[in-house]
């Protein structure tokens, strides 16, 4: 029911829902909780956004869009393709690891959050792949990368690596410092993104 160009009242509803989801989780949040936080009647939530499930979809969609915008901005930093990819990767990983909603949901209700972030996360991952393809195409337009027909495959591999690192931040690699993230990106992410072996 919502669009990316939501009005202020709808944004207030989504902000209230996000706060509630972060504090008590999606399962325990009610439409009444959201309405109370937004300072409106619950019928307004239904009219503006829809059911609780639709509110969840709208909040997750908006958070995904925010991440993609952050990726787009981060990918403009640097004079070379490698610099742009390293910076964008570092910013995105910091964003994901520090994302209050994702972290809180995994801690509070893993049984519902994990499917949304894995088997039920196709739309979110597809959006990330699309944004990554656009980033690669922009690098071609900027004269930093040679055009290739495998951009969708490269983008999907990159998104899947980032997704895996988000879901399981540490096994063997210590990526807790920005310098470690940058070194990882330069060694593993840049070759995939650039198509260099």
Automatic annotation (TrEMBL):
Is DNA-binding among the key words of this record?
A: yes
Q: In this record, what's one Pfam family?
A: TetR_N
Keywords on record? DNA-binding
Xref: InterPro entries: Homeodomain-like_sf, HTH-type_TetR-like_transc_reg, HTH_TetR
Return the Gene3D superfamilies for the record. Tetracycline Repressor, domain 2
The protein's GO terms of the molecular function aspect are: DNA-binding transcription factor activity; transcription cis-regulatory region binding
DNA-binding region as annotated in the record: 30-49
Domain (HTH tetR-type): give its ranges.
7-67
Protein name, entry field: TetR/AcrR family transcriptional regulator
Q: Record the organism.
A: Antrihabitans stalagmiti
């Amino acid at each position: 029911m919502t669009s990316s160009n939501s009005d202020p009242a709808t944004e207030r509803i989504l902000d209230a829902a996000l706060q509630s989801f972060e504090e008590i989780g999606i399962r325990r949040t009610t439409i009444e909780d959201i309405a109370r936080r937004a300072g409106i009647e619950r019928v307004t939530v239904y009219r503006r956004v829809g059911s609780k499930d639709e509110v969840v979809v709208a909040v997750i969609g908006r958070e995904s869009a925010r991440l993609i915008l952050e990726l787009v901005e981060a990918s403009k930093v640097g004079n070379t393709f490698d610099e742009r990819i390293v910076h964008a990767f570092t910013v995105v990983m910091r964003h994901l690891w520090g994302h209050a909603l994702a972290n809180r949901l995994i801690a509070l209700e893993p049984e519902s959050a994990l499917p949304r972030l894995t088997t039920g996360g196709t739309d979110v991952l597809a959006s990330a792949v699309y944004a990554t393809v656009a980033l690669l195409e922009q690098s071609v337009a900027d004269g930093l990368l040679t055009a290739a027909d495998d951009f969708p495959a490269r983008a999907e591999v990159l998104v899947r690596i980032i997704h895996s690192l988000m879901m399981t931040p540490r096994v063997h690699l210590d990526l807790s410092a920005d310098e470690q993230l940058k070194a990882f990106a330069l060694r593993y992410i840049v070759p995939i993104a650039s198509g260099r072996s």
